[in-house]
Amino acid sequence: MTCGAADPVVMDDDDAFRFETRSIHAGQAPDEETGALMTPIHANSTYEQDAPGEHRGYEYSRTGNPTRTDLEANLASLEGGEYGRAFSSGMGAINTVLNLLESGDHVVTGEDVYGGTHRIFTQVYEGYDVEFTFVDMTDVDEIDAAMQANTELLWLETPTNPLMSVVDIAAASDVAHDHGALCAIDNTFATPYLQRPLEHGADIVSHSLTKYLGGHSDVVGGALVTDDADLDEQFGFYQNAVGATPGPFDCFLVLRGTKSLPVRMDRHCENARQLAAWLDDHDRVDTVYYPGLESHPGHEVAARQMDDFGGMLSFELDATLEAASEFVSATQVFTLAESLGGVESLIEQPAPMTHAAIPREERLEAGLTDGLVRASVGIEHVDDLKADVQQAMEYALD
Ligand SMILES: *Cc1c(COP(=O)(O)O)cnc(C)c1O
Fold it and tell me: Which residue among 169, 197, 348, 386 is least packed, with the fewest CB closer than 10 Å?
């Protein structure tokens, strides 16, 4: 499937097997020699050649490693794509897409993209004369108006962070293609279990494997999936040329994570749905941002392009910055931390944490109020999560 390796792929036929089956088996077959079920951690840098230049699919582990090959096949199958590439981090994957660009090219992207994505756009690639326009991606006309003759890439996330804005992937892909640009979607928040952007017309799907796909807050990784053989070949070239590739132990951990992705996501979604409804009724909460709520402006589009609404939500406490800080410090089941997507619940306050780099006036204008709190809802018992939020409110807000 990738790297010219001997084909180890089983059960990655999207038509023959359902998602839950492929998450456990795609890309992985029992070892032929020993019958060992799990993909081995091929802790190995180089490979014996039968004659000079005659190898058995692998020469050097930056170029390709068998543990990585299995992970790449697994991820491609889950996204319903032909080709997968794994990277040492989500940023390594994003950088690889940007490697496709040249000086003088233009990119249209969302004003609320992930902070690290905003940083590599403005602090690395603008220095190479790549131009970026940041727009409200929920408004297709605004995307269309921002496209220029030299626009090569439309880069977007959905749902976005931290207000869970929802972007219509099919409409955005159409705009990109009308202008001869590629459409790339960062699918980290939704995961392929809930949303498969290639089905809606996107060209490239990008992931931080660090989040739901790894799922246990114990590994950093990234991935790209595409149906386009030329793009995949270029991604493989940059994997080898730039070297942001994951080690075999990291690949093993993500393979272990994707096996339980469907059952974890079901519980993440159910807990988030219940917590969102409970917060929505709470007298200390002004607004709840969760695409599963009918009141959420992106609800209809989310219902159309997602199979469920995910485990991320934000809510606005009726509180000052200081009181909201006390609240997120007082939770005991929710851990105060950045990042997301692990089995454990995390909570954070965007204003002084993830979004601290944005000046206050700009931040307020974007709806990121002082009392805004973001939660990555884990898979603990939902009653313990509600009780924890309640006790922290009583401690910090009264
Ligand atoms: C975390 C994250 C990234 C970056 O991934 P790393 O694995 O931390 O490099 C990119 N996009 C989104 C949406 C993320 O949440």
Answer: 386
